[in-house]
Design brief:
Mean pLDDT: 83
Largest sheet: 8 strands, mixed
Low-confidence stretches: 1-20
Structural class: alpha/beta
Distance between the termini: 46 Å
Number of strands: 11
Order of helices and strands: HHHEHEHHEHHEHEHEEEHEEE
Family: Belongs to the class I-like SAM-binding methyltransferase superfamily. Glycine N-methyltransferase family.
Catalytic activity: glycine + S-adenosyl-L-methionine = sarcosine + S-adenosyl-L-homocysteine + H(+)
Radius of gyration: 18 Å
EC number: 2.1.1.20
Protein name: Glycine N-methyltransferase
Strand content: 25-35%
Helix content: 25-40%
Keywords: Folate-binding, Methyltransferase, S-adenosyl-L-methionine, Transferase
């Protein structure tokens, strides 16, 4: 069990927006992360097919990516013909997305690509001028939501953030949000190093530890070791809130009351067809 001072050292000092700590503020993790997942060709076909088909099957055209990071998923959707608005709380991550938009500015879809720095806790107010009648889909993928830590012990900020996501979804639209299988991580004390989202050539090792406060799991830290080429490696640590599946589902159902459908997937498969998946993906359709 890690000591508290070790956990606090795992976070960056910079804060991009009030209420949401930017763990990529020093630029180190952002740079390495871009190396790890930045190659758009490295996305797994399962991931691309799942996401694109889910959006197209539901008639989604206008997408809000609330955790765009370096822009890798937003770029994929732009190339597939979707209209995308991309936000992130980390300006260090966004600089890679902004660079790609500039490099491809002669392409109409990229010239119209909207990229904003915004805070999940004030999201609706921050981007109200962009919402219009609402987005066909809001997506928060790649275990990004777990970066929002439970500062008060009652998940009030997670609830506030998902409420903001819901307000951005038009009636009949989708929320796609995921998290690692923290139930399994807490049971086994380990997380799989292989990503279901990216077939990166940069091998990664992930060392996992869980912090308990009053016998309650409150923080998961993951130490990443990533090959950056020519035998060099880079290490950095990120902290996450360990979402329990049953609790997370209850929060989403409560916020999306009157939803038309609610589906859960483990590693892109329905939950009845997978055992101990690495990631849980929630797809909820807002009531009309």
């Amino acid at each position: 069990m890690p000591q508290a001072d070790t956990v606090f050292q795992s976070r960056s000092d910079g804060i991009s927006a009030e209420g949401v700590r930017d763990q990529y503020a020093d630029g180190k993790a952002a740079k390495v992360w871009e190396i790890f997942i930045g190659d758009k060709k490295s996305r797994t076909e399962n991931y691309r097919n799942f996401l694109v088909e889910k959006l197209r099957d539901n008639g989604c055209k206008r997408i809000l990516d609330v955790a765009c990071g370096t822009g890798v998923d937003s770029i994929m959707l732009l190339e597939e013909g979707f209209e995308v608005v991309s936000i992130d709380a980390s300006d260090k991550m966004l600089k890679y997305a902004l660079k790609e938009r500039w490099n491809r500015r002669k392409e109409v879809t990229f010239d119209k690509w909207i990229i904003e720095e915004a805070n999940w806790l004030t999201l609706y107010d921050d981007i109200e001028h962009l919402i219009g009648e609402g987005f066909d889909a809001v997506m928060c993928l790649g275990n990004s939501f777990a970066h929002l830590l439970d500062n008060y012990g009652d998940q009030r900020e997670q609830i506030q953030a998902i409420n903001n996501f819901e307000k951005c979804v038009k009636p009949g639209g989708l929320l796609l949000i995921d998290h690692r299988n923290y139930d399994n991580i807490m049971d086994t004390g380990a997380a799989p190093a292989k990503s279901i989202y990216y077939n990166s050539s940069h091998t990664a090792d992930i060392k996992t530890s869980v912090l308990y406060v009053a016998s309650k799991p409150t923080l998961v830290t993951m130490d990443y070791v990533i090959s950056t080429g020519r035998g060099d490696t880079s290490e950095f640590r990120l902290s996450y809130y360990p979402h329990k599946l049953a609790v997370f589902e209850d929060i989403v159902r409560t916020i999306f009351k009157g939803h038309t459908s609610y589906e859960k997937y483990g590693d892109f498969k329905t939950m009845d067809k997978v055992t101990n998946p690495a990631f849980i993906i929630h797809v909820v359709q807002k009531g009309k």
